[in-house]
Design brief:
The chain is built from ten helices and 14 strands. Strand 2, helix 1 and strand 3 form a beta-alpha-beta unit. It is 35% helix and 17% strand. The C terminus is likely disordered.
């Protein structure tokens, strides 16, 4: 059985007030714009705005035919009351700090986290559940030893269709791919037009074991999201280092030479690897969402662009490019038996 995914998915951290507050109306309009653009895959997490993203996503999707869309959420951080946070704001998300996150990879914690997510979404199930950022927890091994078996059992019971892990550390994801029976990984920022370290280990492992990839952070925190990056750009949510800014500018100049834009090429490249089931983009406004959807729908940049990027050592020669590979299995996450069980 496959979990069908659209080539473009919406990541919901921005509608959870990532760094800045947006209105409920703008959050709903952003989801509406994604739907109008054909997006039917939505990724969320309790971490995003202390549950705000889940609540807003559930509200925006209310009334949509449930069989027409796919949801993923995450476990690992359980939300609990935080009386000490009265009158304060959360760190990273512009929301009241009336709740706090507690790391919990136990089987009970996984089930409580999922139950909380479903309550906020207003739904009785989600298709995909991911272990969230295990490397950031005080006990990363617990994700492998406790959270994974719990998710494996939930999948076996039919509570969820597919299970996996989300992280920006490819080594962590590679370990789960090779040591467990997950269906999917969410990779953040490590396979982009700017840099492709996931080609060293994670993506070959996913190909070998039949694990699909949700490619997120494909603009490298916004550095690749504009036609002409400048010193105000961000990388890993911090000021961009000068060498990376120079590299991005060189890539952008080549894109212009071949009649493309940097964000257009970045999206096309991010989707081109055969294990990528969907590219996730975050958006805080309907205009951003519509723009990204239009870019991905554009014809891929010409083959000469990719050849020139390789020739100038701005792109790895072993990276699949749009139109340059065969055998793409099509969008979807193989669930159950991806490793032959």
């Amino acid at each position: 059985m496959n979990v069908p995914l659209t080539p473009l998915g919406l990541g919901t951290a921005p509608i959870g007030n990532l760094y800045q507050a947006i209105s409920d109306r703008d959050a709903t309009s952003t989801v509406d714009a994604a739907w109008a653009a054909g997006v039917r895959y939505f990724d969320t997490a309790p971490h995003y705005g202390l549950g705000l993203a889940e609540r807003r996503l559930g509200q925006a999707l209310r009334g949509r035919p449930r069989h027409e869309y796919v949801l993923s959420t995450k476990v690992g951080r359980v939300l609990v009351d935080n009386p000490a946070g009265a009158g304060q704001r959360d760190d990273g998300f512009d929301v009241p700090a009336t709740l706090r996150r507690v790391w919990d990879f136990t089987a009970d914690g996984v089930r409580r986290s999922l139950a909380g997510s479903l309550a906020r979404l207003g739904l009785d199930r989600v298709e995909i559940v991911l272990i969230h950022d295990p490397e950031e927890s005080p006990d990363p091994r617990a994700a492998l030893d406790q959270a994974y078996p719990a998710l494996h059992e939930l999948r076996a019971q039919g509570v969820v269709d597919a299970i996996g892990v989300g992280s920006k550390q490819r080594q962590v994801l590679t370990r789960f791919v090779t040591e467990t029976d997950i269906d999917v990984v969410l990779l953040a920022g490590r396979y982009t037009l700017l840099e492709q370290p996931a080609l060293d280990d994670l993506l070959p492992a996913c190909q070998r074991w039949g694990v699909s990839v949700l490619n997120a952070g494909v603009f490298n925190s916004g550095l690749l999201a504009v036609d002409s990056p400048d010193a105000s750009a961000r990388y890993e949510y911090s000021p961009v280092p000068a060498p990376l800014l120079q590299r991005a500018r060189r890539i952008a100049a080549l894109c212009r030479r071949y009649g493309a834009t940097l964000p257009q090429a970045a999206l096309a490249f991010a989707a081109a690897h055969p294990v990528v089931a969907s590219v996730l983009v975050g958006a805080a406004t309907p205009e951003q969402m519509a723009h990204d959807a239009q870019l991905l729908a554009c014809p891929a940049p010409p083959a000469d662009l990719w050849r020139e990027l390789v020739a100038q050592r701005l792109l790895r020669p072993d990276a699949p490019v749009p139109g340059g590979h065969d055998g793409h299995p099509g969008p979807g996450v193989p669930s159950r038996g991806a490793h032959g069980d």
